[in-house]
Amino acid sequence: MAIFETKKFRPSSYDSSTAAKYRRALAKHPFALFGLPFIATMVLGSFFLTPATAMRYERFDRKVKQISQEEALGMTKNKRKIDLKEEYYKLAAKDLDDWEQKRVKRLPGEHDGIL
Questions:
Q1: Which pTM does this prediction carry?
Q2: Is 21 exposed, middle or buried (0-12, 13-18, 19+ CB in 10 A)?
Q3: Which among 28, 3, 19, 22 is positioned nearest to 11, based on CA atoms?
Protein backbone atom coordinates (compact mmCIF):
# COMPACT_ATOMS: atom_id res chain seq x y z
CA MET A 1 0.00 0.00 0.00
CA ALA A 2 1.33 3.44 -0.90
CA ILE A 3 2.09 5.99 1.76
CA PHE A 4 0.81 9.50 1.11
CA GLU A 5 2.81 12.52 2.10
CA THR A 6 1.50 14.51 5.05
CA LYS A 7 2.96 17.71 3.68
CA LYS A 8 0.23 19.82 2.09
CA PHE A 9 0.75 21.37 -1.28
CA ARG A 10 1.40 25.09 -1.06
CA PRO A 11 2.24 27.35 -3.99
CA SER A 12 5.67 29.01 -4.01
CA SER A 13 4.12 32.43 -3.33
CA TYR A 14 2.66 31.12 -0.05
CA ASP A 15 5.95 31.27 1.87
CA SER A 16 6.14 35.05 1.64
CA SER A 17 2.46 35.67 2.44
CA THR A 18 1.15 37.05 5.73
CA ALA A 19 -0.73 33.81 6.45
CA ALA A 20 2.45 31.75 6.25
CA LYS A 21 4.34 34.15 8.51
CA TYR A 22 1.47 34.07 11.04
CA ARG A 23 1.30 30.26 10.93
CA ARG A 24 5.05 29.97 11.62
CA ALA A 25 4.89 32.51 14.45
CA LEU A 26 1.80 30.78 15.90
CA ALA A 27 3.69 27.50 16.09
CA LYS A 28 6.44 29.21 18.12
CA HIS A 29 4.23 31.41 20.38
CA PRO A 30 0.68 29.98 20.51
CA PHE A 31 -0.51 31.82 23.64
CA ALA A 32 0.78 35.24 22.58
CA LEU A 33 -0.80 35.07 19.13
CA PHE A 34 -4.00 33.13 19.85
CA GLY A 35 -4.76 32.88 23.58
CA LEU A 36 -3.97 36.45 24.59
CA PRO A 37 -6.13 38.10 21.87
CA PHE A 38 -8.99 35.74 22.75
CA ILE A 39 -8.83 36.55 26.47
CA ALA A 40 -8.51 40.27 25.72
CA THR A 41 -11.60 40.10 23.51
CA MET A 42 -13.60 38.42 26.28
CA VAL A 43 -12.53 40.92 28.95
CA LEU A 44 -13.02 44.02 26.82
CA GLY A 45 -16.34 42.68 25.54
CA SER A 46 -17.65 42.36 29.08
CA PHE A 47 -16.65 45.97 29.83
CA PHE A 48 -18.32 47.26 26.68
CA LEU A 49 -21.50 45.22 27.11
CA THR A 50 -22.07 46.04 30.80
CA PRO A 51 -23.63 49.49 30.14
CA ALA A 52 -25.88 48.07 27.43
CA THR A 53 -27.12 45.33 29.74
CA ALA A 54 -27.64 47.79 32.60
CA MET A 55 -29.65 50.08 30.32
CA ARG A 56 -31.86 47.16 29.30
CA TYR A 57 -32.72 46.25 32.90
CA GLU A 58 -33.19 49.89 33.94
CA ARG A 59 -35.69 50.39 31.13
CA PHE A 60 -37.55 47.23 32.19
CA ASP A 61 -37.65 48.44 35.83
CA ARG A 62 -39.01 51.84 34.78
CA LYS A 63 -41.74 50.19 32.74
CA VAL A 64 -42.78 47.91 35.60
CA LYS A 65 -42.71 50.57 38.35
CA GLN A 66 -44.40 53.31 36.33
CA ILE A 67 -47.86 54.07 37.76
CA SER A 68 -49.67 57.35 37.78
CA GLN A 69 -50.08 59.48 40.90
CA GLU A 70 -53.84 58.93 40.80
CA GLU A 71 -53.36 55.17 40.95
CA ALA A 72 -50.87 55.54 43.81
CA LEU A 73 -53.29 57.75 45.76
CA GLY A 74 -56.11 55.29 45.11
CA MET A 75 -54.06 52.44 46.50
CA THR A 76 -53.17 54.16 49.75
CA LYS A 77 -56.52 55.87 50.30
CA ASN A 78 -58.71 52.91 51.30
CA LYS A 79 -56.17 50.87 53.23
CA ARG A 80 -57.13 49.43 56.58
CA LYS A 81 -54.75 48.62 59.39
CA ILE A 82 -53.99 44.94 59.85
CA ASP A 83 -53.49 43.42 63.25
CA LEU A 84 -52.13 39.87 63.23
CA LYS A 85 -53.88 38.86 66.44
CA GLU A 86 -57.20 40.15 65.15
CA GLU A 87 -56.80 38.24 61.86
CA TYR A 88 -55.86 35.10 63.78
CA TYR A 89 -58.97 35.29 65.95
CA LYS A 90 -61.15 35.89 62.87
CA LEU A 91 -59.82 32.72 61.27
CA ALA A 92 -60.09 30.77 64.52
CA ALA A 93 -63.76 31.76 64.89
CA LYS A 94 -64.68 30.33 61.48
CA ASP A 95 -65.95 26.78 61.31
CA LEU A 96 -63.49 25.19 58.87
CA ASP A 97 -64.78 21.62 59.28
CA ASP A 98 -68.29 22.22 57.92
CA TRP A 99 -67.96 23.22 54.28
CA GLU A 100 -69.40 22.19 50.95
CA GLN A 101 -67.59 21.98 47.63
CA LYS A 102 -69.30 24.04 44.93
CA ARG A 103 -68.52 23.86 41.24
CA VAL A 104 -67.72 27.07 39.38
CA LYS A 105 -69.79 27.71 36.26
CA ARG A 106 -67.78 27.35 33.05
CA LEU A 107 -67.86 29.80 30.19
CA PRO A 108 -69.68 28.62 27.06
CA GLY A 109 -67.39 26.39 24.98
CA GLU A 110 -64.80 25.98 27.76
CA HIS A 111 -63.58 22.44 28.42
CA ASP A 112 -64.78 21.18 31.79
CA GLY A 113 -61.82 18.88 32.46
CA ILE A 114 -63.81 15.63 32.47
CA LEU A 115 -62.58 13.07 29.96
A1: 0.40
A2: exposed
A3: 19
More confident call, 60 vs 44: 44
Q: How many Å separate Cα 37 from the centre of its chain?
A: 27
- DSSP string for residues in 20-67: HHHHHHHHH-HIIIIIHHHHHHHHHHHHHHHHHHHHHHHHHHHHHH--
Alpha-carbon gap, residue 88 to 100, rounded angstroms:
23
Residue 93 confidence (pLDDT): 86
Return the amino acid letter for 3.
I
Sequence spans of domains, the chain: 18-93
Rounded Cα gap, residues 11 and 66, in angstroms: 67
| Dist. CA 59–CA 54, nearest whole Å | 9
The one-letter code for the residue type at 90 is K
Rounded Cα distance between 18 and 33, Å, is 14
